Amino acid sequence: MELEIEKALDVICAQLKENEVVKNYQNAKAEVLAEEEVVELQKEVEHWQKEIVQSDYFAKPEAKKVAHQKADEEMNRLQETIEVQSYQAALQEANDLVQALTKRLEENLEEPL
Are 87 and 28 in contact (CB under 8 A)? Predict the structure, then answer.
């Protein structure tokens, strides 16, 4: 039984890799990862998020407030890049495809024999 499931999943995955929505998502992801500005902004966001945690741990409310503000600013800059916007749109489309596929599979399994 497990072998049959694995084979079926392999077929579905192979077909998904050829789907235009999936290809668009993969291309958008590659563009985001290749864009130096995006990578640097992501590092800045992560830095300020770590500062938030440390400030909270050491009970430094003013430092935490500043770190939150900086993290928000960097996140906004990151969200405004064309690459991230394209990636988010492609990710949403891919997610919609997966949800539709899951729904269709569930419906087919529930059909009377």
Answer: yes
Residue 109 within a domain: no
Quote the pTM value.
Answer: 0.79
C-alpha pair distances (Å), 13 with each of 16, 27, 40: 5, 17, 33
> Is 111 among the domain residues?
no
DSSP-based three-state secondary structure for 113: coil
| Residue 25 near residue 97, CB atoms below 8 Å | no
Max Cα–Cα distance, the chain, nearest Å: 65
Mean local confidence (pLDDT), 8-24? 94
Q: What number is the average pLDDT over the span 9-31?
A: 95
Contact 45, 78 (CB under 8 A): yes
User: Which residue range(s) make up the domain with 88?
Assistant: 2-92
Q: pLDDT of 25-81, one tens digit each?
A: 999 999 999 999 999 999 999 999 999 999 999 999 999 999 999 999 999 999 999
